[in-house]
Design brief:
heterotrimer, A: 162 residues, alpha+beta, DNA polymerase, domain 1, 5-stranded mixed β-sheet, 15% strand, globular, C: Ubiquitin-like (UB roll), 2 helices
Chain lengths: 162, 755, 92
């Protein structure tokens, strides 16, 4: 076991400093050290997308990022999506559109959607399906998820044009 | 009949935001693996690399010596169970098998079979420690094929299994052990005479591969064995009461010593009913005096939980040339996995369940093989047999040139029809679901293009009633706190709250539902069998009626009249001379009229009628690759009465896509040594967002007379039709009949090339 | 159909060796326990196959009038009902 390292990064706007082993994943540190358990673990090998967070503007599967690699990074997790006590458009659209059942994949999918809408504010159905293809959901069959993403995009565009 | 046709409801049929929604879109909801307790240790488990072996010895000394390791456990730490069969809430289990499945006793029966466990200061130390445990194995030949396992000379997995048959004399204890654990036989009419009437008979053999439920959240359990002998179990499960019972039975302690706190659950589909981790975490906690958390890896989940069986089936159907089914015969063998318990019984009862079949014979076998002990998966057993029967039905339709929807309507199971397994149907909606497809835009729109084809298929599931309990407390501001024991996998607490709201005449938002732990709510059977919205719904309605009765008494007291002159309707109490008080007004008066009003309700006598669905699918086949693309999909299903239509649609869409995965991609892929070679999501390949189109839904409502609002369970039926519907569409597209699941590119391509 | 005076029991094929091949028998009883007791009297050995410790065998379910008997041996019966012995069903 190698010596622990101090790692400093920003999570949802807050600067944090943690002591971690080099073998610890970003996912483990977020969940076990920072108690940000909204980021979920489904497979630990980057296949399911449940642990998706945004790192320096890019969506990453945090199970495949070592915590030490996050030195100096700016991270956004599901806990940083809502604005205070107000849900953002994506979260609201998921609730209104019944786009979740068990909810375990939901944080990862919402975070991935935030990244999508940042890149492409007006995605087609195909765009959405392609961008979310790395986020597995076993409950919904994806229909209501795709619709919710498009509804959120539309709402955000309307809000932006007002 | 309790249910009028097309009743008008205020809450039922609307689409409120689910009560647990805010927590689930913000990451606040706590699932099993999110539990953190002070002093908590992390566990890891050693699992067998072999499919079939005797364990000669286990040496844990090096693991115990590793700094940071706090305890090691093996099967020696669990009590002997002897020869007991116990009813565990959803099916009976042989306790000797159950304990050996939790921690192997002398023998490993599948790759991934757990052998030992470690509790350590962190997960990394625990994982290092299990590598230090030394196990000496004596390898045995693996038995991987269901038909091979039935052979007289096949190696036998369990020396205590002899063929049991419902209604037969118990097998002699000194008879030779076998892998065939169970045999079922059902007969109706005279099969030979039936086939003699047939103008056309088709008989085919079918195979389906073992598949997994694939829920995204791995199994987990955190257990504290307290110094007073009381255990607390935090777990994501489909049934906290069955976890309590299984854990208590496996540890041989009273159930009252075990409190199960169900966390939020990340999917189950039948796979989170059996107990794997709690007794192990309990033993580790007892040894250390600290809470212990165990979480499975994805590979553990695939290799060592309860997938649904692979199968081999021979099915034969006979019909007259004018399109009437006259006889059917089925021979079905299911892989039980390491120990008995596949859903072969329901499979036998489902194989001809969609049809009015005058003569039938069904024989089924539950067969042990060196694969994980199988478990329920969404309409357990029904998808396998629907693949066979619904493919044959379409083949008959083609041969006698009858529209497959028309044929299904003409032969459909309906009220008064006797099933092959005996009972007679009450009012069911098979005909209506086929008609819904026949009249859909999808079915009426011609499909054009090369290598494109369309298929339809139907499916059935019983819907179990079973037992549920709920209590409901009236709050002074006119809301109601509802406590029920059914863990909520897909929005059920809102569906149950809506039924309570409807019964009291308040809004869905005025009910605050919660799922209680085993010490705070009455016994509830598992969330499964498409039963919760039905049975826990009835319990909530009963609790509402109890509240109504108490409010009537309170109002009578206030108005100084006899209770018999007061009634409850339209969201309030009504008395003589036009006196009335709304629910909200009554709620405000509780403190001055005797204190809290708590309603309680149970459901036990109720059993549901069955539910049917019919699906229509368009595919395009890539004839160079053998890959099938789903172009369009429509699912019709009888929901009885849809309480929250969005979540009914969601069940239909999710079930259909699971069925698509089963049809086209998913399979346990074993090598000759019995090692699963695709135990990651990347290789097991459940459908992604990019693989499927929108799933159109048609909710058919033929109310179930056994529920006050007509509810039928909806969760399970939609997985049944897809494999057959897709097989039929593939035939329509390229003229190849597939009899083997999954219909993966290599298999389909091989069939196309044979043409 | 003529009016029956007793519950009608459908005998599963493996049990017909006890009933000399009879597939359907009418026996008296106002609850399931009595029906099984009457069956046992008429066809000795029947109870052992259906019951364990005076209750329905684990893994077996009994359908009375089309509904699964949730009250076990106490399930009420009447002359109109049919009784079927079936594998217990759970679900996913």
């Amino acid at each position: 076991m190698s010596a622990k390292r101090v790692v400093t990064f920003t999570v949802n706007g807050d600067q944090v400093e943690i002591l971690c082993e080099p073998r610890q994943s970003l996912l483990e540190v977020l969940r076990d050290d920072l108690d940000l358990t909204g980021t979920k673990e489904g497979c630990s090998n980057g296949n399911c997308g449940a642990c998706t967070v945004i790192m320096d503007g890019r969506p990453v599967v945090s199970c495949l990022v070592l915590a030490v690699e996050a030195e100096g990074a700016e991270l956004r997790t599901i806990e940083g999506v809502a604005c205070g006590s107000t849900l953002d458009e994506v979260q609201a659209a998921f609730l209104e559109g019944a786009a979740l059942q068990c909810g375990i994949c939901t944080p990862g999918i919402i975070v991935q959607t935030e990244a999508l809408l940042e890149e492409n504010p007006n995605p087609t159905e195909d765009d959405v399906r392609f961008y979310l293809a790395g986020n597995l959901c076993r409950c919904t069959g994806y229909d209501k998820i795709v619709r919710a993403v498009q509804a959120a995009a539309e709402k955000r565009q309307v809000a932006a044009s007002n | 009949m309790a249910t009028a046709e097309n009743p008008k409801y205020k809450v039922i049929g609307t689409r409120p935001i689910r009560h647990d929604g805010a927590d689930k879109v913000t990451g606040r909801a706590r699932y099993g693996a999110d539990i953190q307790l002070s002093g908590m240790l992390y566990g890891a488990m050693l699992r067998s690399p072999h499919a079939h072996a005797n364990i000669k010895s286990i040496d844990t000394s090096k693991a115990e010596a590793l700094p940071g390791v706090r305890a090691v456990a093996t099967s020696a730490d669990l009590p002997e169970q002897g020869d007991r069969v116990v009813e565990l809430g959803e099916g009976a289990a042989n306790m000797r098998h159950l304990t050996a499945n939790v921690l192997a006793r002398g023998k490993v029966l599948y790759r991934g079979h757990s052998i030992a466990a470690v509790a350590a200061d962190n997960i990394h130390i625990a994982e290092e420690a299990i590598k230090l445990i030394e196990v000496e194995y004596e390898l045995l030949p693996p038995v991987m094929d269901v038909v091979g396992a039935m052979a007289e000379n096949a190696p036998v997995l369990n020396d205590d299994i002899r063929t049991e048959s419902v209604g037969s004399a118990p097998p002699a204890k000194d008879s030779k052990p076998t892998n065939v654990a169970k045999h079922f036989l059902f007969e109706k009419g005279d099969v030979a005479a039936g086939f003699a009437e047939a103008d056309i008979i088709v008989e085919r053999e079918f195979d389906t591969a073992m598949v997994h439920q694939g829920y995204i959240e791995p199994h987990n359990a955190t257990v504290l064995w307290n110094t007073d002998g009381k255990l607390t179990v935090w777990i994501s499960t489909q049934g906290s009461f069955t976890v309590r019972q299984q854990t208590a039975e496996l540890l041989k302690i009273p159930i009252s010593n075990v409190k199960v706190i169900p966390t939020e659950i990340g999917g189950g589909f039948g796979g989170k009913i059996s107990v794997y981790l709690p007794p192990v975490a309990a033993v580790l906690s007892k040894k250390t005096g600290r809470p212990v958390k165990l979480v499975m890896s994805r590979t553990n989940v695939f290799e060592a939980t309860g997938p649904t069986p692979g199968s081999h089936m021979k099915v034969k159907l006979g019909a007259t040339k004018d399109g009437k089914l006259v006889a059917g015969e089925a021979w079905i063998a299911f892989e039980a996995g390491a120990y008995t318990g596949s859903p072969i019984g329901p499979a036998c009862m489902c194989v001809f369940a969609c049809y009015d079949l005058p003569h039938g014979r069904v024989e089924g076998f539950d067969v042990c093989v060196n694969k994980p002990r199988t478990n329920a998966y969404r309409a357990p057993g029904s998808t396998h047999v629907a693949f066979a029967t619904e493919t044959l039905v379409n083949e008959i339709c083609e041969k006698i040139d009858v529209d497959p929807a028309e044929f299904r309507i003409n032969n459909a199971a309906k009220e008064g029809v006797r099933r092959v397994d005996g009972p007679v149907y009450a009012r069911v909606g098979m005909v209506e679901t086929v008609e819904a497809i026949k009249n859909s835009e999808h079915y009426k729109t011609a499909l054009e293009g090369k290598y494109r084809g369309r298929g339809i298929a139907s499916g059935f599931w019983f819907n179990c009633g079973l037992k549920s309990a709920a209590s409901a407390t009236v709050n002074p501001d006119g809301t109601v706190s509802l406590l029920e024991g059914s863990t909520d996998i897909g929005g059920s607490r809102t569906g149950i709250a809506m039924q309570l709201a409807e019964a009291l005449g308040i809004t869905a938002e005025e009910v605050i539902p919660a799922v209680g732990d085993t010490d705070s709510v009455g016994y509830c059977d598992v969330t499964g069998g498409s039963r919760v919205t039905f049975a826990t719904g009835i319990a909530a309605i009963e609790a509402a009626k109890d509240i109504q009765r108490q409010l009537v008494d309170r109002a009578a007291m206030i108005w100084e009249v006899d209770s018999s002159h007061v009634s409850y309707s339209d969201g309030g109490v009504h008395g003589p001379d036009g006196k009335q008080l709304s629910f909200k007004e009554m709620a405000a008066k509780l403190h001055g009229t005797g204190g809290a009003v708590i309603g309680r309700g149970t459901s036990s006598e109720a059993t549901q009628g069955g539910a049917f669905g019919t699906h229509c699918v368009d595919v395009e086949v890539d004839v160079d690759l053998g890959k099938v693309q789903i172009l369009r999909y429509t699912a019709a299903q009888d929901a009885g009465t849809a309480i929250h239509p969005s979540y009914v649609e969601g069940q239909m869409q999710g079930g259909a896509v699971q069925g698509i995965g089963w049809a086209l991609n998913e399979e346990y892929w074993y090598d000759e040594q019995g090692e699963m070679r695709n135990s990651t999501y990347l290789d097991y390949r459940i459908p992604t967002c990019y693989d499927v189109p929108m799933i159109d839904t048609i909710i058919v409502e033929v109310p179930d007379p056994q529920h006050p609002y007509g509810v039928r369970g909806v969760g399970e039926v939609p997985i049944c039709p897809p494999p057959a519907a897709i097989a039929n569409a593939i035939y329509d597209a390229v003229g190849v009949r597939m009899h083997d699941l999954p219909m993966s590119p290599p298999k389909l391509l091989a069939e196309i090339l044979k043409k | 159909m003529a009016t029956r005076t007793m519950p009608r029991v459908f005998i599963p094929p493996p049990m017909r060796s006890l009933t000399e091949g009879e597939e359907v028998v009418d026996v008296g009883g106002t609850n399931l326990g009595q029906v099984i007791a009457h069956l046992e009297r008429r066809f000795p050995g029947m109870k052992e196959r259906l019951c364990q410790d005076d209750d329905i065998r684990p893994g077996l379910s009994v359908a009375v009038a089309g509904s699964v008997a949730t009250l076990g041996m106490l399930q009420r019966t009447n002359p109109e009902v049919e009784i079927h012995f079936l594998p217990a069903i759970g679900g996913g």
